[in-house]
Amino acid sequence: MAEVRADLHRHPEPSFEERRTSALVRERLQAVGLSPRPVGATGLVADLEVPRAARRVLLRADLDALRMPDACRPGLRSESPGLAHACGHDAHTAMLLGAASLLAGRRDLLRSSVRFVFQHAEESCPGGAVDFVRAGALEGVSAAYALHVIGDLDAGTVSVADGATMASADEFSVRVAGHGGHPAAPHLAADPLPAAAAAILALHAIVSRRVDPFTPAAISVCSVQGGTAFNVIPESVELRGTARALEAGLRDRLEEWIREAAASAASAHGCRAEVDYRRGYPVTVNDPEEAARTREVAASVLGPASVLREGRRVLGAEDFAYFAQKVPSAYAFLGVRNERRGIVAPNHHPAFDVDEEVLPMGAALLCALAAS
Question: Are both 46 and 99 inside the same structural domain?
């Protein structure tokens, strides 16, 4: 598994372009007697059939990398500039391949058939999960499970929350339109720059002033573009950002408040705001019974001390949410942090790394979930 993970880390591929990754997964699955089938652009699904099985369990890993620089340790660093496995999907794929190998060699001990899903394009909406749903990959499935490595939990620590565990993730853009002119005569223009600055402050104040402090949510403006010269007031400025919530009802309110805040801030400066709001992944909701099963299995495999008493909820998003809408599911976090070895960077950081001692832990947990 460490060899597979290192290979994938050195050769990351972005969403919908995971051709080499998919070929490696196909080869490994065929080597243990499974027959993978293509789904969507580069995804794969393979079934391990167990005679007289009472149910079918789905185990899922994601394949794609991020479009960002890699500053991981030498020998592991990406050989593809501008691409990095900084979210740990290389580890997810390695662990599920390890589990597939182990389970395929012990199918006589299983009571459930197992469906292995190697999903493309988790990092880019609309995501690869919708392709698997449309292809019928959830048909006949009794339960679905997925692991995600996380850099701020100690290696080997498992977190599984009941109910909402990852947020909805929506994208918005605000075009603050004014009237350009000469900076020596700003009174003859409607400057969109101070209007955009006011809009940023208004948008960032929504969560702190309009959302219950005990309700998780986030609004972040992450991109500001406007102007072409130091001596020209531009016609417009564009803001882009994301809105996240763990409650579906709050998700609707955030969109409403973003439109209101942008319009008010722009109007106060003699400008107007044009808001484009696009829905992304929905909230990922763990089934309480499957979450409890996952905690119980993790405690038996890794020890009771490895399982957090209260499951972690994060405002990151996942298209595994679409699987969880169809079948009872559990999404678990597996810690990979190891300060002694210098593995301390969070997910999506250029230096993100994984303590590879967790790879057999994750594979064992996936196997035990399939066998439970």
Answer: yes
Residues 116 and 153 in one domain: yes
Quickly state the pLDDT bin for 113 (edges 50, 70, 90): very high
- Which residue range(s) make up the domain with 226? 168-281
Kindly state whether residues 10 and 158 are assigned to the same domain: yes
Domain count, the chain: 2
Q: Which amino acid is at 206?
A: I
Same domain membership, residue 267 and residue 336 = no
Q: In Å, how far are 36, 95, 104, 264, 357 from 110, measured between CA atoms?
A: 20, 19, 10, 61, 26
Q: What is the pTM of this model?
A: 0.94
Active site annotation includes 281? yes
- The answer on 39 and 160 residing in a single domain is yes
Domain end residue (candidates: 281, 303, 321): 281
Beta bridge partner(s), residue 286: 163
Considering 122, 247, 281, 331, which one is annotated as catalytic? 281
**Average pLDDT for the chain:** 97
Q: Burial code of 340-364, b = ≥16 C-beta within 10 A, e = fewer?
A: eeebebebebebbbbbbebbebbbb
pLDDT, tens digit (0-9, with 9 covering 90-100), for 75-92: 999 999 999 999 999 999
CATH of the domain at 159: 3.40.630.10
